[in-house]
């Protein structure tokens, strides 16, 4: 059981990884046995001596649940199994046959201290309580439903007639799952909480928030993308013997060594920040850049407020032409008037690595974005959702797909900000940040992030790595700042975040 890290695989990618494992000699049954073993080990550690209820669906996720339940019982734990329907895959049928205990209908299941959700895992595409998806009652045979591997069982006309004759009313699956979860002291989801998609973070049903999710083989996009991620609780990766690779990775702590004995302010990186109508935002970015490790920060503004270490000069073409500038940041507090447009146009014709944020993103529409995409120097764009939609258009596609497409269009690294920040490069590489502090939802924190990213870019990191390091430092600083912090506190906390060993 490992912390959330490593590759992020879509449903199609995990199926491909399993297919490769089987081509190398594994079988569906052996993979299911391995998954069940790892689940049982994890649940045993978490459950202690408490009673366990494993709720199984008709597909291979349910099969994993049967295997885990069998092994937990063999280890001496008190385990019950409830099923939504009879297994529909050969491997799940074999796992069910090997379970030595009884199987009760989910509708009639009584709660237990530990709830293990093995109803539906990777590949779910519709709500649990669609009109044609009743929960089997105790008055119906469990095998009366037909279902695909990871879809809710559909009611057949025959089973509908049985229900009508006996007066049985279907209990919604989500209502039962919520009731069982509410009565439990610990809730554990296998691979993904039942009721969420795999690839785009959507929540299809009104499901509970689980304490722990045991991800099989690798993280999936919905372990990190909202709103699904908030239903996963703490995520742990289980090794089930499947090799996993992906261009998408969970964002982890960067390697940021301290300055060497021969370092000086320019080798650590010079950041220049173009201020505008709201100079406080640019000043916040400047403080953040210094706290993140930049050796020299130049604020191009008429306003001279801020710490003494922040160098001030009026904006002028010759000021932004300084060859010592390692990264040029424009956007925080820039405004959208004629003066802002003129500053942006002057900035775009330089050959410095650029970080473009805030108001400057709104001014990039049309020819500016097209022209920007032809630049050969490093470029990072840092939009939040509203800025992203304004620049690249709205879409229902997953945040990862949208960020990747925008990175190709702009020929830039995109930092698609939010509670589930996605960083994408034009080569398809992606980093997704886990669990941001909700206290980041306050004015100025985006300016702090832009400054931290600019400092990383000025230090010489490649654009994707600079953006990733800045996002990680920003998140770490937020956790260190605690509750109800303001952007000024966040910028100050970057020093401690940078010093993290």
From TrEMBL:
UniProtKB keywords: ATP-binding, Isomerase, Lyase, Metal-binding, Multifunctional enzyme, NAD, NADP, Nucleotide-binding, Potassium
Region entry Disordered, spans: 130-160
Domain YjeF N-terminal, first and last residues per copy: 14-248
Binding site for AMP: 417-421, 446
Catalytic activity line of the entry: (6S)-NADPHX + ADP = AMP + phosphate + NADPH + H(+); (6S)-NADHX + ADP = AMP + phosphate + NADH + H(+); (6R)-NADPHX = (6S)-NADPHX; (6R)-NADHX = (6S)-NADHX
Domain YjeF C-terminal: residue ranges: 248-501
Pfam families in UniProt: Carb_kinase, YjeF_N
EC number: 4.2.1.136, 5.1.99.6
InterPro entries hit by this protein: Carbohydrate_kinase_pred_CS, CARKD, Nnr, Ribokinase-like, YjeF_N_dom, YjeF_N_dom_sf
Gene3D superfamilies for the chain: 3.40.1190.20, YjeF N-terminal domain
Binding site residues for (6S)-NADPHX: 60-64, 121-127, 191, 281, 333, 384, 447
First and last residue of the signal peptide: none
UniProt protein name: Bifunctional NAD(P)H-hydrate repair enzyme
Upper classification of the organism: Bacteria, Pseudomonadati, Pseudomonadota, Alphaproteobacteria, Sphingomonadales
